[in-house]
Amino acid sequence: MTDGGAPSLRKCHDCWSYTRTCYSRCEDCRLKRLRPDRKRRHAISRALFPRALREAVLRELRRGQPLGQVCQVLRIFPAQLHAFARINPWFRAQLDDALMAGRDPKLKHGSESAYRIHGCRCPDCRKGKAARRQLRM
Most buried residue, 19, 112, 125, 128, by most Cβ within 10 Å? Predict the structure, then answer.
């Protein structure tokens, strides 16, 4: 950084031109890499979260097992599950269906307490938690 707070000149890792961005690549090279980088990340995600594991997660959730317990038994992180669901809309729909099928009918779904205290991660409870979070901000 220079004295005025502006980023200093850097060489782009791809084309070796000088750039003033805070990234290691110039804007043109960054834009060229978006699609290949996304494809690479998605391939890695599919390899780390294979079909058999996905089906096991969905099966256990449909049986009514809590999401945290399913992740613990199958030795995956909940963040890994939700990251894969974010890049795969089909899996997100399947995950939401499984959570809806296996949710506890005794709970009042759509409330923050069902999410926070009882650990329900169905779409209704996630929306209730998100709405409550928006009110706090």
Answer: 125
